[in-house]
Specification:
- By secondary structure, the protein is mainly β.
- The chain folds into two domains: about 90 residues, Jelly Rolls, CATH 2.60.120; about 70 residues, no CATH class.
- Helix content is about 10%, strand content about 50%.
- It is built from two helices and 13 strands; from the N terminus they run E-E-E-E-E-E-E-E-E-E-E-E-H-H-E.
- Strands 1, 2, 3, 4, 5, 6, 7 and 8 form an eight-stranded antiparallel sheet that branches.
- Helix 1 runs antiparallel to helix 2.
Length: about 190
């Protein structure tokens, strides 16, 4: 077999159009079964909304600076630095007064699927929750009644739970009695 030169998916910059993404352009470089590479260009005051992925992602800052978060931790990121976003953990990337160019290395195929991680919350009603995006199952540790598993819960419902000022109010409004469930602990 001879030398094979193939086109890339998006050879030019295109706006990132996912909900919650502002002033970010993407250039996809490579997409294989186990790996995806893309460059992201952040203008000033740009953001990618908080979300999680089913695989690890390495973010390499190639130019400028910005900020990143994983779970509740936040940090600036500068040219020449790298951060790992673990599978299953909510993460985010944004800029304020500077522009930033990043290389995203998505390790899309793991040896085994990432296990959901418990997320502690500040609430009098619930102490923690974890979400399995592959199964669409949400497990919630209630402070008084034990642990419950909710079935067929969409990712946007879990995202809204993460962002809710009152986790208990959101649970009552959008999750309890809205999805099938079972008690799984204490």
């Amino acid at each position: 077999m001879g030398l094979e030169v193939l086109p890339v998916k998006r050879p030019s910059w295109t706006p990132l159009t996912q909900e919650g993404c502002i002033n970010v352009s993407v250039k996809s470089l490579l997409s294989l079964d186990h790996l995806a590479l893309a460059m992201l260009n952040f203008e000033k005051e740009a953001t990618i909304h908080e979300h999680s992925a089913d695989f690890d992602i390495d973010v390499i800052c190639l130019g400028g600076s910005g900020f990143t978060s994983v779970g509740k931790e936040q940090s600036p990121i500068y040219e020449g630095e790298r951060v790992r976003w673990p599978a299953g953990k909510p993460h985010r990337l944004w800029t304020t007064g500077d522009e930033m160019l990043t290389l995203m290395v998505e390790h899309t195929k793991s040896v085994k699927p990432a296990k959901p991680v418990w997320e502690d919350v500040d609430s009098s009603m619930i102490s923690a929750f974890k979400y399995d995006s592959a199964k669409k199952e949400l497990e919630v540790m209630f402070t008084r009644t034990g642990t419950y598993r909710y079935f067929d819960v969409p990712e946007d419902v879990v995202k809204n739970l993460r962002e809710a000022d009152s986790k208990g109010s959101y649970m009552r409004y959008a999750i309890i009695d809205m999805f099938g469930y079972e008690k799984i602990g204490r």
